[in-house]
Amino acid sequence: MIEDASSASVTGQQLDVCSSRSPVPGPRSLFCSVCSHSWIDGAAGRRFRSIDDLIRVTGMRRDEVTVLAEIGALQKRTRKNGSSVQEYELTPCGQDLLLAAGAVEAWLSLAPGGPLAPDSNAAKVAIKALIGGWTTAIMRALAARPLTLTELDKLIDRCTYPALERRLSAMRLAGQIELTDRNGSMGRHYKVEPWLRHAIGPLTVAARCERRCLREATAPIARIDVEAAFLLVIPMIELCASASGVCQLAVEAGGRHAGRPWAGVQLTLEDGAVTSCVARLEAQPENWVMGTASSWMDAVIGRETEVLEFGGDGELGRDLVNGLHDALFGQFAMSQGD
Q: Domain limits at 48?
């Protein structure tokens, strides 16, 4: 059973929502709005003669085109053949947004009740529930273990009991969590469903897009984000039966503390199975993987282990990083080069 055994991380203290990624209206609404249109497929790799041409082909609204231009996802350029004709095309930021939209669509295809069309109301409801669970730290709390509403209310700060109940209800109705009875425990417990674990895929791609293109307008990645991502995904990784040992996966601190582990987990493997995963770091672990947040996102999204540092049993560390990629993106071939 995978739990967060670190009492300092979850049990006995509140999760301050301020330390998590705060919702930023512009990028967040853009992320949800854009993925509900087919413009991404129509815009990839092509140029448009005018704004009207872009709107006609993609079905976007004029205000959405304006927002994309403001964040640098679209650019206007003159043809190289010497003419004065100007065209619109996706920038590298737009390509990142394209990948984010593709990750969302891939996640929606895994919905428990069957694939959800990106432009459907059910998809919009599911995405809204997901973002609500992430920004309120519900996902971080439940990543450790099933919890009752009362327990969640004690852990999560700056979210009223009624608001927390509404968030949980939305996530449960969307199929992201379930309400179960635990033997020998008082009350009913909320438990993470596999679909919610897979949501770390689009959240990671969206976070990388934000850090690359919207750094000044979005919240930085926080320790609670790193812990939630690792704790939710690690139970899904599949390794060969010979994989055994203890390994620390850590995100490197920035600034004057660069080079030091800042956030992450320690996991124990026995015969290819993860038997323990805790949000706790040691100063001198036997086996470890470390990198900046950006390097970790590149490694997991693109299966690029070379951007990370390894210590001890490097083969075990690389297998774990590749396992994270395969669990989230393998079946969709969602690598940077695709």
A: 29-92
What is the spatial distance between Cα 291 and Cα 279, in angstroms, rounded to a whole number? 17
Asked whether residue 266 carries a pLDDT value surpassing 50, the answer given is: yes
Q: Which of 158-162, 245-249, 334-338 has the lowest mean pLDDT?
A: 334-338
Full-model pTM: 0.81
Answer whether residue 129 is part of any domain: no
Burial class (CB in 10 A: 0-12, 13-18, 19+), 149: middle
Q: What mean pLDDT comes out for the span 257-265?
A: 86
Find out whether 179 and 37 touch, Cβ atoms under 8 Å. no
Tens of pLDDT, residue by residue over 201-217, are 999 999 999 898 888 88
Q: What is the CATH number of the domain that holds 251?
A: 3.30.1050.10
Cα 245 to Cα 313: distance, rounded to the nearest angstrom: 9
**pLDDT at 71 (0 to 100):** 81
For residue 65, being part of any structural domain is answered with: yes
Tokens of 40: 């991404």
Q: What is the pLDDT of residue 53?
A: 77
Angle at 278 between CA 287 and CA 305, to 5 degrees: 45
Number of structural domains (the chain) is 2
Counting Cα atoms < 13 Å in the Cβ hemisphere of 202 gives 26
DSSP 76: E
DSSP string, 172-240: HHTTSEEEEEPTT-SSEEEEE-HHHHHTHHHHHHHHHHHHHH-TTTSPPP-HHHHHHHHHHHGGG----
Q: Which of 92, 122, 147 is the last residue of a domain?
A: 92
Give the mean pLDDT of 112-134: 95
Residue 297 located in a structural domain:
yes
* CATH number of the domain where residue 49 is located: 1.10.10
From 54, 75, 92, the end of a domain falls on 92
19 compared with 275, residue with greater pLDDT: 275
- Give domain status of residue 64, yes or no: yes
Name the 3-class secondary structure at 56.
helix
- CA–CA distance, 314 with 129 (Å, rounded to integer): 38
